[in-house]
Amino acid sequence: MKIVQCWDDGVEDDIRLCELLRSFGAQATFNLNAGLHEKKRGGSWLFREVKEVRKLAKDELVSVYDGFEIANHTLTHPSADKITPTEWKREVLEGRARLEDLFGRRVAGFAYPFGHCPPHAVEAVREAGHLYARTCKNATPSFPPEDPMLLAADCHFLNPCFWELYEKAKSVGSSAFYFWGHSYELCSEDDWKNFEEKIRRLQLDPDAEWGSLSGLFE
Fold first, then answer.
1. Whole-model pTM?
2. Rounded to 5 degrees, what are φ and ψ at 66?
3. Distance between CA atoms of 178 and 186, rounded to whole angstroms?
4. What are the pLDDT digits (tens) for 97-119?
């Protein structure tokens, strides 16, 4: 069974996350908003009113995510139900184009901001040529999806039922187990330690191997 994961928003904690994942040879996809990364780190806000979160600088993206898959998260992270269909199409197309220009490679995947995916938004993502698009819905097994443009994950990485869902995916013969999150949700050293143990346990499972999201659809 393939183990696939994705992380949203391109924030500072991704630096530490990428280093940890590299140490295990783990693959991951990072969903980025090309229009929100500036010359310097910015876009500061507080998570849970205690932790400052900042976007990575544009010029460091290529080095931070070296070796990892990049996916489109729109240009500026709007909710699809808060803007016009024309504006949404621009967000989808320009977001992908800028990422491909920056990284010099194909960007095949998509993640809906806030998980909102009304029908017109789904079709715009499909028409743009993405291989898949992730919602915020959960389903086990998550693969194969009925519609790649409405992809559910098995769970969020902090789901208390993570291991139960993992074993369920294995027992039903799923081709993959898929989890997602934001690295800024790792707020303490204990959080980082627990996540590292989770990655180690996945790494040691002889029935599992790391995979890429786009690879599942190609």
1. 0.97
2. -55, 125
3. 18
4. 999 999 999 999 999 999 999 99
DSSP string of the chain? -EEEEEEES-BTHHHHHHHHHHHHT---EEEE-GGG--SSSEEEEEETTTEEEEEPPGGGHHHHTTTSEEEE--SS---TTSS-HHHHHHHHHHHHHHHHHHHTS---EEE-GGG---HHHHHHHHHTT-SEEEEEEE-SS-SS-S-GGGEEESEETT-TTHHHHHHHHHHTT-SEEEEEE-GGG--SHHHHHHHHHHHHHHHH-TT-EE--HHHHH-
Instruction: Supply the CATH classification number for the domain 2-217.
Output: 3.20.20.370
How far apart (Å, rounded) are the C-alpha atoms in residues 122 and 146? 14
Those residues with Cβ within 8 angstroms of residue 160's Cβ, 6 or more apart along the chain or in another chain: none
Find the helix packing angle between 119-127 and 85-103, rounded to 10°: 40
How many Å apart are CA 180 and CA 125, to the nearest integer?
20
Position 185, amino acid: E
